Amino acid sequence: KNQVEQSPQSLIILEGKNCTLQCNYTVSPFSNLRWYKQDTGRGPVSLTIMTFSENTKSNGRYTATLDADTKQSSLHITASQLSDSASYICVVSAHDYKLSFGAGTTVTVRA
Amino acid sequence: DGGITQSPKYLFRKEGQNVTLSCEQNLNHDAMYWYRQDPGQGLRLIYYSQIVNDFQKGDIAEGYSVSREKKESFPLTVTSAQKNPTAFYLCASSIALAGPKNYEQYFGPGTRLTVT
Question: Closest approach of chain B CAs to the CA of A111, in angstroms?
Answer without folding.
Answer: 26
